[in-house]
Amino acid sequence: FCTPCLQECLKPKKPVCGVCRSTLSPGSRALDLEKQIEMTETTCNGCNKKMYLSKMRSHAASCSKYQNYIMEGVKAVTKEPLHNTRNFPNRFTFTCPYCSEKNFDQEGLVEHCKTLHSMDAKQVVCPICASMPWGDPNYRSANFMEHLQRRHRFSYDTFVVCDYDADEDDMMAQVLIRSLRDK
């Protein structure tokens, strides 16, 4: 099943099977994996602060030293010199287009909007897309909630270093080198 169809089956008070529509019994969560994520310590590559893996994503979104660490990797693979980073839009934190609450990472904004604004039909500009080089800061999405679910289910920059001037092959080589160095 695709996620939107499966979520429709899970919306009723009693979740139902996507095929036969019979009532589902509660699923079991991967508690062993959750526990491992909660108990495994790691160190931020920027500020060297120790924390649990479960806190790393939110820390990375607000740690300026971690963002500098990422930019150093980007500089190593960028063919043209990097422009002054102050001229680039913030692609790490976003403001809710409905209530103007600030400092959400991409996944936090998606969760916030699902929780508090799922019934709001007001047409708004997607702050995530507007921050991208190809984004139109004036385009108002006809169905922002659907847009979030389809376009921003996960944060792309969690998995890759985003630089729009870097050569992809050079970036891959740099990522491999840095992953070996970080072990």
Automatic annotation (TrEMBL):
Signal peptide: none annotated. Gene3D superfamilies: Zinc/RING finger domain, C3HC4 (zinc finger). Residues 44-63 form the C2HC RNF-type domain. Pathway: Protein modification; protein ubiquitination. It catalyses: S-ubiquitinyl-[E2 ubiquitin-conjugating enzyme]-L-cysteine + [acceptor protein]-L-lysine = [E2 ubiquitin-conjugating enzyme]-L-cysteine + N(6)-ubiquitinyl-[acceptor protein]-L-lysine. GO terms for molecular function: ligase activity; ubiquitin protein ligase activity. Pfam families: zf-Di19, zf_C2HC_14. GO terms for biological process: protein polyubiquitination; ubiquitin-dependent protein catabolic process. Keywords: Ligase, Transferase, Ubl conjugation pathway. Its EC number is 2.3.2.27. It comes from the Eukaryota. This is RING-type E3 ubiquitin transferase.
